[in-house]
Amino acid sequence: QAVLNADYTLTQFRFLQRLLLVHGRWSYRRIAFFLRYFLYKTCSFALVHIWFGFFNGFSAQSLYENWFIVLYTVFYTATPVECLAIFEQDVSAQGSLSCPELYKVGQRQELFNPWLLTATLLYAIYTSLVLFFMPLGVFHNSALDYQTMAVTINMATVFSVTIELVLLTRHWTKWNVVAVCVSLSMFFLCTLITQSRKLFEMSPVDYYFPGVAQNAFCSPVVWLTALLTTWTTVLPSFTVHALNIILTNPDKRKVHNTNDRPVELQRSGFRRGASQRRSSYAVSQGRGIGRLITSEGSLRSTVPPVDRGGTTSDTATLGMLNLRQRLESDG
Amino acid sequence: MPKEQDLANRPDNTAFTQQRLPAWQPILSAGIVIPGFVLIGLAFIGIGVALFLTSRSIQVQEFDYTGVDTTSSCYMCSSTNVPNCVCYVNFTLTTKFQGMVYFYYALSNYFQSHRKFGASRDYYQLSGDTTYFTAPLDVCIPFQYANTTPIVPCGLSANSLFNDTFKLYQIVNGTTKLVPFDGRGIAWWSDYNIKYQNPKVTPLKDAFKGTAKPVNWPKPAYELDTTDPSNNGFVNQDFLVWMRRAALPNFWKLYRRITDPDYVGGLPAGNYSIEITYNYPVISFNGKKRVVLSNVSWMGGRNPFLGIAYLVVGSLCIVMSIVMLIVYAKFKFPDDV
């Protein structure tokens, strides 16, 4: 009866180690990323309507066709993030087992806390601002119409959130790749279908955007606007990501005794949140252990450990580092 | 626990269920990231330059004819309620206006993007379904019935059809010469062929028996263009252009093109006069009306914003890559700081 009521059931105590250190840790990471990404993608595509309100007399006019709103969460953006939630691993199973200190990331709430959620929300607000005001600048005082603007913003939104997910995913299985490709092609396919002649003739009231996609996808202005908007929305993420990569270069062999901490990004608001959202760069904690252990990417190489004494020059740090290097080279 | 049950409950040992799927973990380094930023920045700057130059090469002439100013030529028309009042806007071209020239009318502070504006139309009527001619949809209220007669086409979108007309004259040696306009193909192909259909009744007038024209229209729908049956009724090009809703409060709508053999290469330099039949009232809501002459390129009309935005974002990328390079250098050689 206890088995039937419990969330997790173990038959032997030795399974507990694997459950906790491997799957528990992965689950925490996956769920944290999943929830933050969901918040981001939904808010960014919905908040556009607030800004559009200023330009339509606050009449609650939707900027998107109804079918886009329906299919956005279902077809266009769901499967890639589900693959993230199922497959994402930052460290391999053996690595997680041999370095149990990594579990503390979850205990310290480094991947999911009110600050990170606020940062994600702010980033979503920034994205929605760019998603609306860039096309606004292009479509203002022009002969282009409302439905073309809707399709342009649709395209930009789907591209932006997909690229954001591509940045977030570090563990690429073939299913991740398939999910991303299929979602993008579903966007184009479904848009063309819901805006096709046949469906409009069947029900003019339900499919009220006939011919728009066919017109818009052939227009260079629409593509250029969508491209520019997409790049501008993901620019902060890209920058933070790039800075993290640059600043955790393993080729450095010099000992840092200086008091500046180049790995910490003491930058403002959403950017720091964005970096934390990417992976567990515990930069806000400012502690050597968390940062060094959980930073990844370039640490998978077999370069001898970098001695980053910093201010915490105790042997425990070095011990952790060696441990980390070992597990990375195993993994 | 019995061994058999243990083995029966054992989960599958496949790569998928045991999370052992082969995967790729990208390893990026500064050597990839910084040049990547530079490349993207350069690409954007390149596109921006191309767009900006294209936009600069497009010629545009805009003339406001709302008639708010007492010195404006259309002031008389705006201040009286005389229907079909005529006013003139004269202008001079110093250089040849390269063709093909497109003639637009532009409105400001006009909210076609308002939800009620777009919702207030009957899609069934406009698809030629005559069952809705006797009972228009309720979304058209208050433009649904005129006294008890159903209005066709009902709704605010149709009722507010723009009804100013324009003629362009070239003044050559003291004589005025009409520049012919071409009104074919100004609306979308899909609008003309798919979205809007006339009722399949000939003559068209018979389909509209027992219905009323929209309140603010001078003529009913089947008389929108009596000279050309393919431009009459719901598929009238001006009507289609009007019904294609604009996104923002300031917009242009295509009125005509100049395709006459004398002027297809462009408008030669000289004096011109636009004769405007001023019907459409906009002053009550601080709207403005303008007449625009423009030529188009592969990117449509003039749009400096796109070119400038690309240049700005491209430069931002280059600047950021330089900053990252500096940060990387300082990080790599901290003793040299």
TrEMBL record, chain A:
Under the heading SUPFAM superfamilies, the entry gives:
Calcium ATPase, transmembrane domain M
Q: What is this protein called?
A: P-type ATPase C-terminal domain-containing protein
One GO CC term, this protein: membrane
Keywords in alphabetical order: Magnesium, Membrane, Metal-binding, Transmembrane, Transmembrane helix
The cross-references to InterPro entries, in alphabetical order and at most eight, read:
ATPase_P-typ_TM_dom_sf, P_typ_ATPase_c
**Transmembrane region(s):** 34-55, 67-87, 114-134, 146-168, 175-194, 221-247
Q: Does the keyword Metal-binding apply?
A: yes
P-type ATPase C-terminal domain ranges (all copies) = 4-245
Asked whether the UniProt record includes Iron-sulfur among its keywords, one would answer no
TrEMBL record, chain B:
Span-the-membrane segments of this chain are 27-53, 308-329
Where does it primarily localize? membrane
Q: What domain of life does the native source organism fall in?
A: Eukaryota
Q: Which keywords appear in this protein's UniProt record, sorted alphabetically?
A: Membrane, Transmembrane, Transmembrane helix
> InterPro entries under this entry?
CDC50/LEM3_fam
Q: Where in the cell is it found?
A: Membrane
> What would be one Gene Ontology cellular-component term for the protein?
membrane
- Keyword match Transmembrane: yes
Similarity field? Belongs to the CDC50/LEM3 family.
Protein name, as recorded: Cell cycle control protein
Species of origin: Umbra pygmaea (Eastern mudminnow)
